[in-house]
Predict the structure.
Amino acid sequence: MLREMAEHRGCKLVKSRRRTPGVGDYGRYGLKDAATGKEVLGFGPNGLTATAEEVEAYLRKGLIADWKSSLAAAPAAPPLPPARKARRTEPARARSRRAPASPPPPPPPKPRLEIRDAAPRDAEALSGLLGELGFPTEAKDIRKRLAALQKAGEPPLVADEAGPLGCLTWHVTPVLHRPTAVGRVTMLVVTKKARGRGVGRALLEAAEDRLRAAGCALVEVTSNIELGGAHEFYKSRGYRRTSYRFVKEL
């Protein structure tokens, strides 16, 4: 997301090459002018300094400024010519016999957003969503995994509005160190064309209801360190960062 935003602003996103958390400028970013290579944001004597949130805020401010300036520069629309009176060529009696024009038909109802359990028929759409998230998965594999999750009583949730727009997976984790099980949101993705419309919020609220009903008093969320926009979304829904997540491939 940051890379695409930077390209739209004529910039190039630079990412720290550090791979060890807490060392140097790990997890930091910078911006350069794409044409000249001039440093724009996030460069210091000891490496990169800007967080993903700071880069996103800088780019969004620039986009808003461009939008406002384009409005100010747009020429005013010319005034419309005065309407002419229609010539009366039809006799008054004939006009009185003419049937009134019928009103236009009402627009079709807007599809309603529905949060439901994922079904095998959603496999193709879910494959596209996982591809947007950066986890390309074939539809046949998704069908197998759906069956396993449904058997475990934790079916993924789908946001449907004339077709799947988003998906969320959740899990109940029994633990020893807390009095209740811990709920976990393990994945949340909304297609780019539907972001900013409350689809993610509806999915998250539905998952919280499921986890609450399962006896969970705490919900955890895993989110990639590079997804600054997702971090802000979770913060806006009352989540806070409390720990680091460590992974190891087996």
